[in-house]
Design a protein that fits this description.
heterodimer; A: alpha/beta; Amidase signature (AS) enzymes; eleven-stranded mixed sheet; two-stranded antiparallel sheet; 15 strands; B: mainly alpha; 2 helices; 43% helix; 0% strand; transferase (chain A); Amidase_dom (chain A); Amidase (chain A); transferase activity (chain A); AS_sf (chain A)
Chain lengths: 464, 60
């Protein structure tokens, strides 16, 4: 039986804190106990802020006792991926190069969490510079999947996914450039949201690829996702890519009512080369949604045939530009896998990059047309079974495929055109969690969350 | 890209190993195959009616 615990969702913890049945000090203490117990084997955390967290918990307790609770998140233990800056606290980006780096300011998303009273227990492990999806970190330890420690947790936000999946924390921040929240969410059996590009500030998030980076969330439930999104979203004048949009108010408007909801299914791209059991779980989700009021509509997006090329060129080129100085001056201080990836990014020409940007616009236009007739697109999140640690190739549909290329394929388009995309657990495949991906139109987080909430009520994740 | 390591050296990156060179060649072959499949003529790069811009001026 996998050692995956569910000590409480944010909403439940908030209720318990308000009615006095638990204190924040107790919650944070339990969180820290779990971290001390599980982290040596799972490597979910790089840094743990025991004294800081307990002090903040005592302050939260005083506020709550005095009737001055800041909101639902006051006193709740959370974690933050270690590529998000916190002033005065080491932020490594999972790297040797930044191993001793101490930022002089705090990321806006973290500031907003702490302003809401949330307690940051520590910084979670990630793939080096968020440049990979295994979270097999050469400097801070191999992060392991709690459902089966011989398997990867996904990445690059693997530490955050493991911390939530094991109940070390009630929720965590991550970042997602080509699936780095949704892939570990699917592989660890938690909910992962990549919001619309620009909805959540990236100020203080170490860049991977500027036009693809998103800050997002991993939680145990859709309701918790809505609570966290409302806390961290909204315009930030310090982030030039930030949308002039008010913070979301999704929690208040959550509904499971699917009447009138049209769910698109695109089969040529999103259902090709998908493991049979994962495709079956996705079909289970579609059937349930249809049986409960939604309309299922087949759609076609021909330009998706070029999505992998466009994403590859844009992602690698921008990433290598970020790292060009370090790659020239100290290449030996990168892990070999990441160094190889950065060398790949030095190869495309300017013409290649601009062609990729044009393809991006074509794909965006096709999705825009598609969303005139549907509310969300539903797809598998990851098309392959969760790989073993160190596994480079796998078989799907009788074909031998690359693990990394396959795992990123279905989640990449939402990064390419900045659409909100959520992964929600949807049953098991060969003993490991799987997820379905719900993609919405720009700024349609409410619709995405509502469909996810409905699907969550089906409890498909309990089906083996 | 026949002399991939010379290209990288010219760009200021340090000499790569033989193993990395062959891996990069394999990667670039994969990417080139994807590029060959792209119908660039349909993107309208030379079409003034599309008025594509990769940059948005501040006044836009």
């Amino acid at each position: 039986m996998p050692d995956v615990r569910r000590p409480g969702k944010i909403m439940d913890l908030a209720t318990a804190l308000r009615n006095g049945s638990v204190s924040s000090t107790e919650l944070v203490g339990r969180s820290l106990d779990l971290v001390h117990e599980r982290n040596p084997s799972l490597n979910a955390f790089i840094s743990v802020y025991e004294d800081r967290a307990l002090q903040a918990a005592q302050q939260a307790d005083a506020r709550i006792a005095g009737g001055r609770a800041k909101g639902l998140l006051d006193g709740v233990p959370l974690a933050v991926k270690d590529n998000l800056y916190m002033q005065g606290l080491r932020t490594t980006m999972g790297s040797r190069i930044h191993g001793d780096f101490v930022p002089q300011y705090t990321a806006t998303c973290v500031e907003r969490l702490e302003a809401s009273g949330a307690i940051i227990v520590g910084k979670t492990n990630l793939h080096e510079y968020a440049l990979g999806l295994t979270t097999d970190n050469p400097y801070y330890g191999t992060c392991k999947n709690p459902w089966n420690p011989e398997k990867i947790p996904g990445g690059s936000s693997g530490g955050s996914a493991v911390a939530v999946s094991t109940g070390m924390v009630a929720g965590a921040l991550g970042s997602d450039t080509s699936g780095s929240i949704r892939i570990p969410a699917a592989m660890c059996g938690v909910v992962g949201l990549k919001p619309t590009y620009g909805l959540v500030s990236r100020y203080g998030c170490f860049p991977e690829a500027w036009t693809l980076d998103h800050v997002g969330l991993l939680t145990e439930s859709v309701e918790d996702t809505a609570i966290l999104l409302d806390a961290i979203s909204g315009w930030d004048p310090k982030d030039r890519s930030s949308l002039r949009h008010a913070p979301t108010c999704t929690h208040r408007h959550l509904t499971e009512d699917l009447s009138g909801t049209v769910i698109g299914v695109e089969r040529d791209f999103f259902f090709s080369d998908v493991d049979e059991s994962i495709a079956e779980r996705t079909q289970d989700a579609l059937h349930w949604l249809q049986d409960n009021g939604a309309t299922i509509k087949d759609v076609r997006i021909p330009s998706l045939r070029d999505a992998v090329y466009a994403l590859t060129i844009i992602d690698t080129s921008e990433t290598t530009t970020v790292h060009q100085d370090s790659l020239r001056q100290r290449p030996e201080d990168y892990g070999p896998e990441v160094r190889f990836l950065l060398e790949c990014g030095a190869l495309p020409s300017a013409v290649d990059y601009l062609t990729a940007q044009q393809l991006r616009e074509t794909i965006r236009a096709d999705f825009q047309d598609m969303f005139r007739g549907i509310d969300v697109l539903l797809t598998p999140t990851v098309p392959i079974l969760t790989p073993d640690i160190g596994q480079e190739r796998t078989r799907v549909g009788g074909k031998d495929v690359d693990v990394i290329e396959s795992a990123m394929r279905l989640v990449g388009p939402a990064n390419l055109i900045g659409l909100p995309s959520l992964s929600i657990p949807c049953g098991m495949a060969h003993g490991m969690p799987t997820g379905v991906q719900i993609i919405g139109a720009p700024l349609a987080e409410q619709t995405v969350l509502n469909v996810a909430l409905a699907l969550e009520s089906a409890q498909l994740d309990l089906k083996y | 890209m026949p002399e991939i390591d010379d290209y990288l050296k010219a760009a200021g990156y340090q000499q790569i190993s033989e193993d990395e060179r062959s891996q990069l060649m394999a990667y670039w072959s994969m990417v080139s195959a994807l590029r060959e499949a792209v119908d660039t003529s349909s993107l309208g790069a030379a079409d003034p009616a599309i008025s594509y811009t990769p940059w948005s001026p501040e006044h836009a």
